[in-house]
Design a protein that fits this description.
It comes from Levilactobacillus suantsaiihabitans. This protein is of the alpha+beta class. It is built from 15 helices and 9 strands. It folds into 3 domains: about 70 residues, no CATH class; about 90 residues, DNA polymerase, domain 1 (Orthogonal Bundle), CATH 1.10.150; about 180 residues, hpI Integrase, Chain A (Orthogonal Bundle), CATH 1.10.443. Strand 2 and strand 3 form a beta hairpin. The longest helix has 20 residues. The N and C termini lie far apart (about 105 Å).
């Protein structure tokens, strides 16, 4: 008897020997009346499956090829059926819950547009018309249009992978550029105006102050900050360990993921003395209220992401400064480090948890532009020029060439002959 464990992909299993295999139902034999079932432990290349996802893609390709050869009516499925029965389940199995939740509205846009069209009947012209609509008449931002059209192309890529299509016709059209969007940030002055509106003796307002301070002074991502617990804070060594991300539906339904957005995001950063003092005082106040675990919390349950945005909006309006997105506090931190202290790119890259300084430069290179003027100012007058009193060269030629430096320096800059010993 073969013991097998299910995977998150329908029809894909792991055997008791640890090997991955798929088992697919292909209907009923019209002659014998028996079920047609196929089980495979190796890919078409004869190699053991490296992942459940790889086995699932081959399962779908085998199934669709079988249906096509036999002229099954449901092989000519609509785009809606393909999305609901194939692409979306596969996508959902491959990504984080939070990522899937953020893409659901995008998938709805795609199904609304192409839902009744047979998958195989989607033309290049329809793709181009959809692209033009997104850019011209949809009213969507450039960034959202990029996301929608990119998701559409990926869905057709998947249809090719699993055998529904022989080619992705949308690849014959141009992609939608992401576009450059300038994210508004708070300067040091604006941040000072915001926190000056917070009444610290009030417990909830004190919580708001600590939340804004932590994000502005550490540059951690929103989910990373919400996941911070006091066990991650070393006030004596002035260190902050960032190694988790909060995925929250509501205050009673959340996941503390034991990882960050990227592998390099798992980091320990140094925090300044002011931040240590603020956190120490906040910890003391929290404990009086029975709060012992989450740093950014007033009731020892995680704070909802939307609350962060609401707090920013409220105090921005009170201070008369621009409203910014929650993630812009991270950008504000970088701007503060560069404009106030001219911190180098490597230090900022490590502090933000980027995989390389190239990533940091991609998003923040423009913030270092002001330092170019500072370099020029420091260069001025830094070289002491004392020309020779006579030529040491033996040169015969044009007189104009003999004295190329003549007139380059004003007479006043040359040493006085009487001062020469």
């Amino acid at each position: 008897m073969i013991i097998m464990a299910t995977t998150k992909y329908p029809g894909v299993y792991t055997g008791n020997d640890g090997r991955i295999f798929y088992r697919v139902e292909l209907g009923t034999d019209k002659v014998t009346g028996k079920r047609i079932q196929k089980t495979k432990r190796r890919s078409k290349q004869g190699q053991p499956f490296r992942s459940a996802h790889e086995a699932y893609k081959e399962l779908m390709a085998v199934k669709n090829q079988y249906l096509e050869q036999r002229g099954y009516a449901n092989y000519r499925i609509s785009y809606r059926t393909f999305m609901h029965d194939n692409y979306i389940p596969s996508y959902k199995a491959d990504v984080e819950k939070s990522t899937y939740s953020s893409r659901k509205s995008v998938f709805e846009h795609l199904v609304d547009r192409f839902g009744d069209t047979t998958l195989r009947d989607i033309t290049v012209l329809q793709c181009e018309q959809f692209r033009s609509y997104l850019l011209s008449d949809s009213g969507y931002s450039q960034g959202f249009s990029h996301l929608v059209y990119g998701s559409f192309r990926k869905s057709l890529d998947y249809a090719v992978q699993v055998g529904f299509l022989s080619e992705n016709v949308s690849k014959k059209t141009k992609s939608v550029a992401k576009g450059k969007s300038q994210v508004p940030i708070w300067t040091k002055s604006e941040f000072e105006q915001v926190i000056s509106k917070i009444y610290l003796p009030n417990y909830y307002e004190h919580f708001c102050f600590v939340m804004l301070w932590v994000y502005f002074m550490t540059g951690c991502r929103v989910g990373e900050g919400l996941a911070l617990q006091w066990s991650d804070v070393d006030l004596k060594r002035q260190k902050l360990k960032i190694h988790r991300t909060l995925d929250i539906r509501n205050k009673m339904d959340y996941d503390l993921k034991p990882y960050t957005k990227t592998e390099s995001g798992m980091r320990t950063i140094s925090i300044d003395g002011d931040t240590c003092s603020i956190l120490s005082e906040w910890q003391r106040i929290q404990r009086k209220r029975g709060v012992k675990h989450f740093v950014i919390s007033y009731d020892d349950t995680p704070t909802i992401r939307s609350s962060v945005q609401n707090i920013i909006r409220r105090y921005a309006d009170m201070a008369g400064v621009p409203r910014i997105q929650a993630k812009a506090l991270r950008h504000s931190h970088v701007s503060y480090l560069i404009n106030e202290f001219n911190i180098d790119v490597l230090s900022i890259s490590q502090r933000l948890g980027h995989s390389s300084p190239d990533i940091t430069l991609k998003y923040y290179a423009h913030l270092w532009r002001g330092s170019n003027e500072k370099v020029a100012e420091q260069l001025t007058g830094s070289i002491n020029v004392i020309p020779a009193k006579r030529s040491s060269l033996s040169f015969t030629g044009n007189q104009a060439v003999k004295n190329p430096m003549q007139g380059l320096f004003p007479t006043s800059s040359l040493p006085d002959k009487d001062s020469v010993g």
